[in-house]
Amino acid sequence: MKLTNQQIATIEQTLVLNGVVYEDIKLEVLDHIASEVEAIMDAEQDAFETVFKAVLKKWKNVLQTTSNSMWLGMLFHAPQIAVDKLVAYSKKQALNVLLLSTVFASSLSILGHAIGIELFVTILKVILIGLFYAMAITTSVSLFLIWQSSFKTTFGRLFLFRGWVVFIFCYMTNIQNQPLKQFDANHTFIENFISCLLYGFQFFYSYCQMTMAFKHFKIVSKLKHA
To answer: What is the pLDDT, as a whole number, of residue 221?
Structure first.
């Protein structure tokens, strides 16, 4: 039995009242619950209110507000289904940062010793300064746009919690003066590798935060053109 627009609106309003305010999660849950309600109404010929109440009870656990301080921070709270989604995304993000940082450190260490440390660091410094400034500017604009947007997504919310880390890393790496101050010709290959690995971690972690903003804008764009 096809649900009416009013019945679908009732499901959506109930989800919002239960804390499901993120558009990406809300649409996903709304679709699942609506399909389940339709199937049960067709099979059992029960009224919408009765079936919806029973289905909503089954979803109660995944809609409860919770957190995961290890992966999302102590201040981040959201429905269980949103937390699970973001934890899985954060774990994948961490693995990507580790892999990219390792490739970055290996490449820099090999190239640095191959073409000469001083020339290599001079060239690299210009590139890194430009990239970090670009990320800082993009982060600032994205934070403002997401903060004032009427559309809420899980990725946008997490970006508001994590985006400012980009500015801390810009400061920690001393980007304007000497971004690779530990990369030295007198150091061993391993020492330079570790220095580049730590730097790469900060750079790629910052980049991964930007990907969350891009995901938010992509979801918003789809909603506006739906």
So the answer is: 92
Q: Write the CB contacts of 53 (distance below 8 Å, at least 6 apart in sequence).
A: none
Token readout for 162 is: 């994590």
CB 163 within 8 A of CB 209: yes
Which mean pLDDT values do the consecutive 10-residue runs of the chain (226 residues) have?
A: 86 89 91 92 86 91 88 86 92 93 83 64 72 86 93 92 82 56 62 78 87 93 83
Q: Are 142 and 163 in contact (CB under 8 A)?
A: yes
